[in-house]
């Protein structure tokens, strides 16, 4: 839920360009010939590495928030680096400061970037499923367009292809436009998506839900898609799934709940909770739901209307779960205790990400896993 730093959501929505493609144009293109389909592994499957981007620019973030976000990114990267390799894209002019903040725990790769949200700009890593080479690995380029042309994204539009090339995997193309933060999968055929993002005319004008589902079934190895309504036009992402609901494992979902009656998410999160409590997965199982309430308060230094105050945007890495803490002792502790129960055998590490959260994002938004 990234509230547009300097972008007016309403203005950009009104001026969103018409991509002009229809349902028939959603077929997978290009470099995945020979495989009948792909599957996106669960985030908890073993990783080869994590990808991030050291990209908050002063023009977009402002000097104070830029410095805070840089510190937070380094903190997250070094924490993940204690569990698995971390590759971080960095602009040439920011290389020295990134090196000083991240140290030797992070592999820095010089690459032009516009921002820090690798979950949305990076490739979605998949494995081939059926067909010829059953060991093939791919990276899907979902045509990042700045969350519906709300933000400059000339450099970030090339990140998915660049990372796939650097990782030495096939580049998988599609005309479908979306971001990784909109995709939540269990690795066993089920996905949770938000309609407000994936079916938004600022990404996929004129594309039906059935056509979108058909493309994603092939690209991600899905057999069941659970649609949440999300919320359109309230934040720059139009309501990404990874702020609202996450799979722990097949059949188990953690759900964000906002108890602030003044927040638009008060009604949104309750509607999502109702839908998920009634849902079944691809195997026909009724979902087990675990609620993670939002903090009642956050530290005042970076408090704002756009602050992403939610615990569901954690990141699962090899042997660990990296989660936020916001200074609310009760809800911070509740989150830590629940995650320990949900992820036995993994170390739960909570980190301060106030600078990132003040821009409307979280730990999951800044990371992209590369499975082995």
Describe the structure.
A hairpin with a 2-residue loop joins strand 15 and strand 16. This protein is α/β, with parallel strands linked by helices and 372 residues long. The N terminus is likely disordered. It is built from twelve helices and 18 strands. The longest helix has 19 residues. The chain is globular, with a radius of gyration of 19 Å.
Number of strands: 18
H/I helix tally: 12
**Bulk shape:** globular
> How many structural domains are formed by the residues?
1
Can you tell me the CATH architecture?
Answer: 5-stranded Propeller
Query: Based on helices, strands and strand pairing, what is the structural class?
Result: alpha/beta
Proportion of residues in extended strands: 15-25%
For this structure, what is the CATH class? Answer: Alpha Beta
Record the strand order, biggest sheet: 1-8-7-6-2
């Amino acid at each position: 839920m990234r509230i547009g730093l300097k972008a007016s959501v309403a203005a950009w929505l009104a001026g969103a360009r018409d991509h002009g493609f229809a349902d028939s144009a959603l077929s997978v293109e290009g470099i995945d010939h020979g495989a009948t389909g792909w599957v996106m592994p669960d985030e908890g499957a073993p990783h080869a590495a994590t990808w991030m981007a050291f990209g908050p620019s002063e023009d977009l973030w402002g000097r104070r928030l830029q410095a805070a976000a840089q510190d937070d990114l380094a903190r997250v990267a070094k924490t993940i680096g204690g569990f698995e390799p971390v590759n971080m894209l960095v602009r040439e002019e920011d290389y020295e400061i990134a090196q000083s903040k991240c140290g030797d725990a992070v592999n820095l790769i010089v690459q032009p970037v516009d921002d820090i949200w690798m979950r949305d700009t990076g490739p979605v890593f998949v494995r081939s499923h059926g067909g010829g080479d059953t060991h093939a690995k791919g990276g899907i380029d979902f045509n990042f367009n700045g969350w519906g042309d709300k933000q400059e994204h000339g450099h970030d539009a090339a990140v998915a292809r660049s990372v796939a090339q650097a990782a030495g995997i096939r580049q998988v193309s599609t005309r479908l436009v979306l971001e990784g933060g909109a995709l939540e999968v269990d690795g066993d055929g089920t996905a949770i998506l938000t309609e407000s993002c994936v079916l938004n005319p600022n990404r996929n004008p004129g594309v039906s839900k059935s056509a979108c589902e058909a493309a994603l079934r092939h690209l991600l190895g899905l057999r069941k898609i659970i649609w949440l309504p999300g919320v359109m036009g309230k934040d720059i992402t139009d309501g990404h799934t990874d702020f609202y609901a996450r799979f722990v494992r097949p059949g188990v979902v953690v759900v964000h709940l906002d108890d602030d009656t003044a927040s638009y998410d008060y009604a949104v999160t309750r509607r999502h909770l109702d839908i998920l409590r009634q849902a079944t997965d691809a195997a026909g199982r009724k979902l087990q739901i675990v609620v993670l309430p939002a903090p009642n308060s956050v530290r005042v230094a970076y408090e704002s209307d756009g602050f992403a105050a939610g615990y569901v945007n954690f990141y699962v890495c090899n042997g660990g779960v990296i989660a936020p803490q916001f200074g609310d002792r009760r809800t911070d502790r509740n989150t830590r205790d629940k995650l320990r129960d949900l992820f036995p055998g993994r170390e739960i590490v909570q980190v301060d990400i106030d600078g990132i959260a003040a821009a409307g994002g979280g730990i999951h938004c800044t990371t992209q896993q590369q499975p082995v």
